[in-house]
Structures are given as structure tokens and as C-alpha cells.
């Protein structure tokens, strides 16, 4: 890809358009997920149009850094991931995730900035269901989305995650293997009030993983 800046920009632009069309027509996404993901694809498409993706020296350094970080995890395949378990594998993958974020930042995509400036605001709460508005910057754009949350055992989870997990667990196991015992999901902290400069509407969406 070295020196192929124009071709890479054209490819990125085409992929972004295809991604937005795909998200708009596929039925496996909820309306909230679709609205959120379309914004992400548009933002990343805009970033890729100016990112120095064709710089040979930068690319070599990025590959070397990511390869070293990947080897350092000690996770060399599916068996290693299964042996480490969810908590263990996430701990081992943490330094690799940090290296990946650093590489992206070097290409002008600062995910730490996105996370640091993320703001949430409660739109509506009824019993064990709630709607929360989320704002965060991504590649020079402001992502503005609504998410639905469901309370389970005192903790809040993204409703779409719960639905996707239920669908996965309902699938018949392949090859006679025992079914999945369950998918633990990260809890979502429920905001009491709006925590950013953008205020939530008086009443009521979309994010995904």
C-alpha cells in the first residue's frame, strides 16, 4: 500500500458508502444500532480520506508495534483464548488494545479523546427500561445517538446486547457440542443527569458494541 494514497482514499470512500448502504438495508440491526453505526462509518470514512495510510515508514512502524504487542499477549489461537477465559483474556489483551489505540492516534484517529469526551444524559426511565442519549467526538465529527437499556439483577445493560446474546444462545449447537453456558455482558452505568454540554430532550435513540 506504500505510496498508494489516492487509491487508498478512493477505496476508503467506496467502503464507507457501501457500509452505510449495508447498514441501512440489513435486518439484523435494530433501529438504534443502525442509526449509531451509520454515523461511525461516515466519521471513519471522513478520517480515512486524510489519514496518511500510504506512508511506508509509518506503516512499517505500525506493523512492527502491533505484531510485538500481539505476541506479548501470549494468546496464539482459539485454544489459548478459551484457556484464559473471558477475564484472563481481556487482561492479556489490554496492552494490545493500548498499542492499537496508539497506532490509530499516530494516523490521526484519537480514540482516547473520544472516550474522554463522551457525555451521557438520561432521557427516560420506566421501571427496568431506560433511554439514554450519548454524545462523543469521533474523527472530527460529533456522534449523537440514543441507546435503550434494560436492568437485570440491579445492573443496566444495553438492550441490543441482551437480545443478540439471547439469539445466539438459542441457536442449536453445531456438531453435537454442548450449548453455550451464557454470555456475561459489561454493565452500563446509568447517568442520573446529563453530564455534558449537550442536554437531553425532555422525553423520548443508538449504540452497539
Our measurement of the CA-to-CA distance between the termini, rounded to an integer number of angstroms, reads 30 Å
Low-confidence stretches: 178-186, 195-209
Share of β-strand residues: 15-25%
Mean pLDDT: 84
Number of strands: 4
Shape: globular
Question: What does the largest sheet look like?
Answer: 4 strands, antiparallel
Q: Cα-atom Rg, whole angstroms?
A: 20 Å
Strand numbers in spatial order across the main sheet: 1-2-3-4
Helix content: 40-55%
Structural class: alpha+beta
Number of helices: 6
Helix-strand string: HHHHHEEEEH
Can you offer a commentary on this structure?
This protein has 209 residues and is α+β, with helices and mostly antiparallel strands. The protein has a domain at 5-112. It is built from 6 helices and 4 strands. The protein has a 4-stranded antiparallel β-sheet. Helix 1 packs antiparallel against helix 2 (31-48) and helix 3 (56-72) packs antiparallel against helix 4. The protein is globular. 16% of the residues are buried. The model is unreliable at 178-186 and 195-209 (pLDDT under 50).
